[in-house]
TrEMBL record:
One cellular component term from this protein's GO annotations in UniProt: heteromeric SMAD protein complex
Organism: Illadopsis cleaveri (blackcap illadopsis)
Annotated protein name in UniProt: SMAD6 protein
Domain MH2: 60-226
Keywords: Transcription, Transcription regulation
Polar residues compositional bias, start-end: 23-40
Pfam families, per the entry: MH2 (PF03166)
Domain of life: Eukaryota
Residue segments, region Disordered: 1-53
One GO MF term attached to the UniProt entry: transcription regulator inhibitor activity
Gene3D superfamilies: 2.60.200.10
Gene coding for it: Smad6
GO biological process: anatomical structure morphogenesis; BMP signaling pathway; cell differentiation; regulation of transcription by RNA polymerase II; SMAD protein signal transduction
């Protein structure tokens, strides 16, 4: 269905991964780094989040869309409690990736973009941020609160179509930021960043070791104003 699923608390007692009620150390980018990146390309799309009414409210995250190592379009600022991120729909509000233009896309990126479909629904809940996979292909997720503390092995979770996962746990994040030894981090590290790849996985279990090798992926830059 095109309407968002019901609240996850009524779907399953599982605390981390659950189905919807429907009839893997990697590079991390901060908002500043992304904005100043020479590979950032402008996108022509309607951004309802910049409306005068929306600007008055505080945002809880920004979403960056990447194709391999190139960021496509500008940051999409999210003010509402939930947001749909999809490829193309006749109707509906949210972040439409199909409208982001880029010259000379590779065939791999084109094929992957065609698999995004209904994409995902990001939802801010009292306990954290949840991602619902509404597409017909799996998504792959990594975040600081999904990793094992002080472990160099990257944890990338595969989420099948029709399932949801808590991509960011607020309570666990607070604990990690007080106890984490950042010497374990290789390269830039953002404790409030979530990475989601469409259709293609990365990390120790895949041929792609870094998310920048994935054709189409998102970086969710969470705000501290929770």
């Amino acid at each position: 269905p095109e309407s968002p699923p019901p609240p996850y608390s009524r779907l399953s007692p599982n605390d981390e991964l659950k189905p919807l009620d429907l009839s893997d150390s990697t590079l991390s980018y901060t908002e500043t780094e992304a904005t100043n990146s020479p590979n950032v390309t402008p996108g022509d799309f309607s951004d309802a989040s910049t409306s005068p009414d929306a600007v008055k409210r505080s945002h809880w995250c920004n979403v960056a869309y990447w194709e391999h190592r190139t960021r496509v379009g500008r940051l999409y600022t999210v003010y509402e409690q939930s947001v749909s991120i999809f490829y193309d729909l006749p109707q509906g509000n949210g972040f439409c990736l199909g409208q982001l233009n880029l010259d000379n896309r590779s065939e791999t990126v084109r094929r992957t973009r065609s698999k995004i479909g209904y994409g995902i629904l990001l939802s801010k809940e009292p306990d954290g941020v949840w991602a619902y996979n509404r597409s017909e292909h799996p998504i792959f997720v990594n975040s600081p609160t999904l990793d094992i503390p002080n472990c160099r092995t990257l944890i990338v979770r595969k989420v099948m179509p029709g399932y949801s996962i808590k991509v960011f746990d607020y309570e666990k994040s607070c604990l990690l930021q007080h106890t984490a030894e950042l010497d374990y981090a290789d390269g830039p590290y953002d404790p409030n960043s979530v990475r989601i790849s469409f259709a293609k996985g990365w990390g120790p279990c895949y041929s792609r070791q870094f998310i920048t090798s994935c054709p189409c992926w998102l970086e969710i830059l969470l705000s501290n104003n929770r």
